[in-house]
## 1
Amino acid sequence: MYDPSDVAVGSDGRAYVLEAYNSRIQVFTREGSSEKLYGTAGNSGLGELDEPDSIALREIDENLTEIVVADTSNHRVQELWLNKSNDGENWTAFGEHLYGEYKPSTHIYFDAPRGVDVDPTGRIFVSDTGDDRVNVFVSTEWIKVPRPVNRSEINGSITPDGWLTAPTGIAAEYETFYVAESGANRIRAFYVNGSQIYSLGKAGSGRGEFNGPGAIALDHAGHMFIADTGNSRIAVYTTDGMYVTSYGSMNCSTSIMSNPSQAMGQFCNPRGLDVRNNTLYVADSGNHRVQVINITVYPEPSCILIGDEEPCGQVEVAEIVALINEWAGSRAELADVMKLITKWAGQ
């Protein structure tokens, strides 16, 4: 394994590790044995990858699995369809690189996309890093129609925090998604319609701060895991924006390459992650390994709230008024307004 950029884990425990340097997907069993390789280095044909950065997995049924890859330096998204019933493998792709200002809406184009995810309904979310936007693709016939038939673009321009800046990692639920905005060292949460729920974090290495966050993963208990790449740690928040805990510290020792089992819990520029069944999988990119961490026990959430500059800050009335205005304009949910009021009342 060399320079793993992301990892996605299936229900059977298999880990699909995306290797940026080797431009391939390497599959590992639950026990950690290498089982299969998909993809080769290249820049033209289907299944050829060039510095791929992100991978997402969707198990459509007991036989069919969709693997979505941000084929970053080829400026496209590729999908690998695996059919267990007949050991079938089928690659499809969409997207191209358009130079200059001519970028018509009839074309699907990307500039170094670095993040992908698939929500439970099958929509594909792509962080188009070089174009400072997120694209959401919808299609009911992915296999028959490799090019998506419906697309929406979210760039943050209509939100209080303005345009997205170099979005990378992305994680999607049914009607919300979360973006690691590496260019601004923060996390932003959106509804699928493009309205912003909140932004979280600023540049730095303290609690509530980030340095080039590169990936996001969600668990089923309402936790958001963030690969804080430049700080070589994993930060954990609730999806409401409250700080929970963090894992890891920096260790980029060259000796780890010859003994990858040493210095567990320490990272060197982690770029990707996934979480499944109380287990966190981290693509420890600079150490050329994937770490597997048991996360059964969480501390109680702390009092970093959305919009606070310091830990244990207070919810201001102005924050509530601003969110009420967002709700009045159909850009926020009433439930979120009530949550903020409840936090304010409990101070």
Note: The CA atoms of residues 296 and 304 lie 22 Å apart.
## 2
Amino acid sequence: MGNSSSGRPPATRAFLIGLALLVLGVVGTLVWQEYESRFVYAVSVDGEVLGHVATKDEWHRILEETRAWATERMGCPVVLRSDVELRRVLPEDGPPALEAGSLAEACRQKLRFVAEAWALVVDGQEVAYLKTEEEAKKVVPSLLEDYRRGILAKGNTVLLEVHLEETVTVRRAEAPVAKVGDIEQAKSILLRGTDRVEEHVVAKGESLWSIAKAHSLTVDDLRKANPSIQNVNLLRVGQKINLIVPDPYVTIRSTERYTYSRYLGFPEEVRRDDTKWPWESHVLKAGLSARNEVTVEIDRTNGTETARRLISEKPVSAASTQIYVLGTKVWPVNPNGLVWPTLGRITSYYGWRGRSFHHGIDIGAPTGTPVLACRGGTVTYAGWKGNYGRLVIIDHGDGMESWYAHLSSFSVSVGQTVKKGGPVGLVGVSGRTTGPHLHFEVHVNGSSVNPLAYYPRGG
């Protein structure tokens, strides 16, 4: 008699139940896979989220590629020291996805791989890292050899002593891959050290250029250290500026014996000749300086001289007198010519001087020597003008101007009419100059010309 309500045998019912369970399992799996596919893995390195990947396998592939890159760069196995976290998130809740190449590049920048290296230790502090013990032990001898060559390069020098002030040792250490370098890089680190900020008070006559040169810096270095300075040409006396200077990890001290020649100059006999113009002054007989041989001992710290002691000085050759003919004829024969502006000798001519162009002539004369107007005209400038120092400009009314620079004082004012040969001022050392002289320029229609073109030759 069977179960008439089911109408099916037991085997059929079991098959149908199994089929239903299979369908439910497949559907459930598909639903679960669909649900799971919505998630991604956010990659965090040391607390910073870099991006996300679709699967853990993708992340492990990128990680191993980055490890291989670090190993190749280091030349030995490396160990990951960064804290890496993978967190399942929905795309809308996570960071933006990165392409595999972009994520790999981000990992190279962010992941901290360390390697077994050899550290240079200065007074207990690790300051540089090298791949091998052999390289590390070569750094200090190479550094001292570079120093010796630099001292001996000038010649006539015997190096008596050179040593490091600090104790430098070598030991095994874990080092970030980016900090492991070669011998030259290690030497640079020892000599450069860290940057130390000092304060400098601007003194009279100083410029950003002269301050930078005095501290072995560049003007760009000083501008970066002092962003508030808008115009490098307008420093004020007493102004405080920052200096960023190297603070080396090591101090090299040395003592050398240096022999050089000291030239003591020569006496000069000046013969005045009133038949010659001042610009025709010349050396009749050249002088010869006396020469002594000097030996000194010099102490240096990191190449900078700190002390000098005289050991001996002995004469080598005697001086001979120079005879100089000074033309003293003042007024030109041609009444239309120019008056010579001061009594003295020409020390620098018009034209190129090295890489710069000299727009006038320099006439050497003692401070206080009178300066005369080369022609009559009207004073258009009388004041301080940069490197010219105290400057007087006279407009002669026909396109010609004459300029008189480095004066110690001037005796004219703007708008004043000056006669030919009239007083303008006195020779001095104002502005940029290495000694007392008159810098004299002639301009025609706004351009400088050679002043000597306007003076006659011969008597």
Note: The first helix runs from residue 10 to 37.
## 3
Amino acid sequence: MKRYFFDLVSGERSQYDYRGMVYPDPETALQLAELMALDLGIQPDSAWSGWTVDVYDVHGERCFSVPVKEPDLVAA
């Protein structure tokens, strides 16, 4: 079991996950990041368009970066 941190990042701003979550494997952490990006992509007014969900391990190394897609691209 490892702890993963899910930061929301844009060109100008970042929202850091200081608590993280424990998962049994990196694939599960990636699935959560993809779900988070999908959820953010369907928010009204495309507020999260252009952001990414960056997943880091406890050593601060980035494991994954999942882009938040525009709502019309999410439905495709």
Note: Residues 2-74 form one domain.
